[in-house]
Amino acid sequence: MNQPDVRVGVLTEKEIRFDLYGEFSIHSYEKKFSGKFTAKLAENLIVLFQDKKEVLSAKEITFIPNDLEIESFLLRDVVIGINFHWQKKENQRFRGKLNLIKEDDKITAINILPLEDYLTSVISSEMSPNSSVELLKAHAIVSRGWLLAQLAKKKTHTTTMIENASEDELIRWYDREDHVNFDFCADDHCQRYQGITKIINDHATTAIFETRGLFLTYNDKICDTRYSKSCGGISEAFEACWEDTPHKYLSPIVDYKFELDGYDVDLTKEASAEKWIKSSPHAFCNTTDKKILSQVLVDFDQDTNDFFRWKVEYTQEEIAGLINTKSGFDFGDILDLVPVSRGASSRLIKLKIVGSKKTLTIGKELEIRKVLSKTHLYSSAFIVQKENIVNGVPQKFTLLGAGWGHGVGLCQIGAAVMGEKGYTFDEILTHYFRGATIQKGYE
Q1: Is 11 within the bounds of a domain?
Q2: Domain count of the fold of the chain
Q3: Cα 135 from chain centroid?
Q4: pTM of the prediction?
Q5: What is the pLDDT of residue 156?
Q6: Maximum Cα–Cα distance across the chain
Q7: Which of 98, 121, 254, 385 has minimal CB crowding within 10 Å?
Q8: Across the chain, what does the average pLDDT equal?
Q9: Helix 202-210 to helix 115-126 angle, to the nearest 10 degrees?
């Protein structure tokens, strides 16, 4: 296996403004390109302007840097955190090639670069490059394996899959977007990637260099290594969130150095799940240490203080409006939210929504999180409390929850704590991915 190049979709707009730092070339053009440019669509062609003068037009344009280490380009007004509570625009700088293509009535800017260079940015974008080297090494291996696994199955992968749809039940799950013209997007829907915008220090560079080509395998296959912010104390099984195909290395584990006393950790049972969510058990990811959290929670994530255990409150008007809007169905007043089935981490896989006009069971975990929040609920590991019931209609719903994200695979906050406690990167990986082995795929 050779190190592959990856195509990362960064920005899609009707007009794209960018700056080229250094000298870039375009095939079939003798001229070198540098400075500020604007790309617009006209008559199904991408038209390039500099200083308001048309430079060239083509169906596709690729700018190639003369020196990958020196030249870079800046994309203006890149949208980050798409559909999340921190969504905003910022200017971002990248190394590698800049590929402009037409997609429907817009232009998409794609960054083409070697996988290892891409990874250096990913682990610096997903978390602080000031994290412990062992955490960054572990995350580099996890991110690399996820990338290679996605590239391997890209041809048969679909974005949204419906397992069962009827008048009474809608079960849907979402995976990485299956982009047609590039491999990955630059946002959280794939892996957070911000080029060289973030400060990449020696820790990040060292982590990539010392783990170059390493990924996890199970039964001689590249592991589809998933990760989320906080498992909430017990990680979730792959099949609870995506297709019903169990992966042994993504089986649930207690996120601590030993099994917990005083808990029935079969959280598929409602009574056990309620006790678990209402308590604060020992777990690597159960921390309030700001030094550790700052390694994983980038600036806009740090607005969130409660992630291991959290609470969300809705009035009847708020929850009815939210569910009716997000689901596309008219439930009327929301009378109840009934747990139907839970995964090993207490995350709901199926939830019955009982309304005055309609009753429907929905799943899996991300669908539940989407329907119960303007963006995404922190997780589907929650219990429901109803208050002030008037003529059978609760006037208030309180959701008490645990964890942040799907909870499958590596728990980023838990791994950060392990790194600070002196665990090595391979110990972190064998904790979260039981039975997997580390393998080197290329030099």
Answers
A1: no
A2: 1
A3: 18
A4: 0.87
A5: 59
A6: 78
A7: 385
A8: 90
A9: 130
